[in-house]
From TrEMBL:
Family: Belongs to the 'GDSL' lipolytic enzyme family.
Entry keywords, A to Z: Hydrolase, Lipid degradation, Lipid metabolism, Signal
Annotated protein name in UniProt: GDSL esterase/lipase
Pfam families: Lipase_GDSL (PF00657)
Gene Ontology MF, one: hydrolase activity, acting on ester bonds
Signal peptide coordinates: 1-24
Species of the source: Cucumis sativus (Cucumber)
GO biological process, one term: lipid catabolic process
Gene3D superfamilies per the UniProt record, alphabetical: SGNH hydrolase
Length: 358
């Protein structure tokens, strides 16, 4: 790039930032930055994902792709563009200003040899993007933009599935110890984001994996007392519940410690259990089997390998594939996270809407 073009690019970047700020004054947020697993990405952000999916679906999102994922449904409510995959932005300043998605379907909190985008890897990418903003926009403009952005984290599912459930014979930790270890890593990441300038942070809890088609398939021959009254695997849900409980406790502490930072914990577990406990009330016919897949509960190890094997009416299903809910479920969770309906207080201490208007 010639020397004459760079100042012009920076001028337009400032102009874009000014326009974005003006347009989003009501919501008080300019962009979303997403970190997480299949709850934030359909595989677009993972190189060679079809070759690496292992115990996950080849198609972790339905035909609507990202538009059916919870953070993108929230972006629509805010009036923001959908965050683009990190690997597609090519260090473009304009792309960063529109928000980036650092997520990957198999992302874990704990780094390990099988993790394709761990929490720490994604955090480093976020910090690199923030540094690029500072270099291109200057410290003041970059700080304002970062403080006016929403940082959305959704992790933990894969840790319980891949590192705990599917390798039960190799467990190194007890259930509560494992949950607390995961939370401690999340807290470190959140502290790093806060130190880098983030002032609006949303942390999502883990869904009730004990009710997911894959877990039900794995435990189908277990004794009857393995399941709870809703037909879900008690042990798995207790582990996930402990993680959610401890994660929320730590978010409360972080809110008290950083008075200038607003942090919300969203208990999506609670919302999904409401649906699973009374699916017909919310328009669902099938709450155990996956819409797309084969085998017991449509949840064999290969998961959803082709759209051709998907159910005809996805709107009637709670689960899309092995572990991921359908877009209809995500829409209910998004409505509740935003405005407390139909499930009240799943996000605490406030709704996401309240976070963005204060």
């Amino acid at each position: 790039m010639g020397l004459g073009l760079k100042p012009l690019l920076i001028f337009f970047a400032h102009l874009i930032l000014l326009i974005d700020t003006t347009a989003a004054q009501e919501s008080n947020v300019n962009a979303m930055f997403l970190l997480g697993d299949s709850s934030v990405d359909c595989g677009f952000n993972t190189l060679f994902y079809p070759l690496l999916h292992r115990n996950f679906s080849l198609l972790p999102c339905d035909a609507n792709a990202t538009s059916s994922l919870l953070p993108f449904l929230l972006a629509d409510k805010i009036g923001l563009p959908h965050a683009q995959p990190f690997y597609n932005q090519n260090e473009s300043l304009e792309a960063i200003l529109n928000g980036l998605n650092f997520g990957s379907p198999q992302a874990t909190i704990m780094s390990n040899e099988q993790s394709y985008q761990s929490l720490n890897q994604q955090l480093r990418q976020v910090l690199d993007a923030i540094q690029l903003l500072r270099l291109q926009l200057g410290q003041h403009a970059a700080r304002h933009f970062i403080q006016s952005s929403l940082f959305y984290l959704s992790f933990g599912e894969v840790d319980f599935i891949n590192l705990y459930l599917l390798k039960s014979s190799e467990r190194k930790y007890g259930g509560e110890e494992f949950a607390r270890l995961l939370v401690s890593q999340m807290v470190i990441a959140i502290r790093n984001l806060q130190e880098a300038g983030a002032r609006k942070i949303v942390c999502m809890g883990i869904l009730p994996l004990g009710c997911s088609p894959r877990v039900l398939s794995e435990w189908r021959d277990s004794p009857a007392d393995t399941l709870d009254k809703k037909g879900c695997v008690k042990e798995m849900n207790e582990l996930v519940g402990k993680y959610n409980e401890v994660m929320e406790e730590e978010m409360v502490k972080l809110n008290a410690e950083f008075g200038d930072t607003q942090m919300i914990f969203c208990d999506v577990y609670k919302g999904m259990m409401e649906i699973i406990g009374n699916p017909t009330r919310y328009g669902f016919k099938e709450s155990k089997s996956a819409c797309c897949g084969v085998g017991w509960y449509n949840a064999s190890a290969v998961g959803c390998v082709a759209m051709e094997i998907a159910c005809r009416d996805v709107r009637r299903y709670v689960w899309w594939d092995l572990y991921n809910p359908t877009g209809v479920v995500n829409a209910l969770l998004a409505d509740s996270a935003w405005g407390n309906r139909p499930f009240s207080t799943i996000c605490r201490p406030s709704t996401i809407q309240d976070l963005l208007f204060t």
